[in-house]
Specification:
The protein has 196 residues and is an alpha/beta fold. It is 41% helix and 10% strand. It binds S-adenosylmethionine (SAM).
Length: 196
């Protein structure tokens, strides 16, 4: 997958959505590698370049996705986890986290987070919670952990265990954005709670 400075291509006042869609983005390149249809020509071109350099990138992406499914299944069925904060969700596909978790424990609650507005446009597929549980989607950047925690608290109970899923995203955070500190900040609610 092409190296990308996380957030550096995100739209903002200086970058329209149309311009943004003309630059390859990791969410859509990854979608192409998984065989998805939610990608643009520029993403397919970037993916094909990556495949030429390393043909294993396709099986790596699929193995990564399978890892996320196995991990979710284990956390629900073996570790008793009922809440997930999935940061760097990617395009909805088969076996999204809430589908895997709620197939085992329908009361599971999941908050999805991604900074790519194209992912947001597909987020409806992530908001299909079982009635006993809940799902929510936040458009936010991993580099704003305080904002993520504050907004996720509307759906998740941070006095109870929450699995923070950071699958295939931390390698996109530059050293100058201090990924170690971001992860520490995300763990803050549990440092404040004496015991469950
Ligand atoms: C390689 S995909 C991984 C998707 C999913 N976690 C998986 O493993 O199947 C990385 C995702 O992280 C998102 N992402 C990258 N940098 C981010 C950031 N700083 N904040 C939020 N999301 C980010 C991208 O938009 C993309 O959807």
């Amino acid at each position: 997958m092409p190296s990308q400075a996380s957030g550096s291509t995100a739209p903002g006042p200086e970058r329209s959505l149309a311009t943004y869609a003309s630059v390859a983005h990791v969410a859509r390149v990854y979608d192409y590698l998984l065989g998805g249809k939610d990608n643009f020509a520029v993403d397919r071109e970037a993916a094909e370049q990556a495949i030429r350099i390393n043909p294993d990138v396709i099986s790596t992406a699929r193995a990564n996705r399978a890892f996320g499914i196995r991990t979710t299944s284990y956390l629900v069925s073996q570790a008793g986890i009922r809440q997930f904060l999935d940061i760097g969700t990617g395009m909805p596909t088969n076996n999204n986290i809430h589908e895997v978790a709620q197939s085992i424990a329908p009361e599971s609650r999941i908050v999805y987070v991604d900074h790519d507005p194209i992912v947001l446009t597909h987020a409806r597929a992530l908001l299909t919670s079982a009635p006993a549980g809940a799902t929510d989607y936040l458009e936010a950047d991993l580099r704003e952990p305080g904002k993520i925690l504050a907004e996720a608290a509307q759906t998740l109970d941070f006095s109870r265990p929450v699995a923070i899923m950071l699958i295939a995203i931390l390698h996109l955070i530059l050293d100058r954005d201090d990924p170690y500190d971001l992860v520490c900040q995300l763990a803050t609610p549990w440092r404040r709670v004496a015991r469950w």
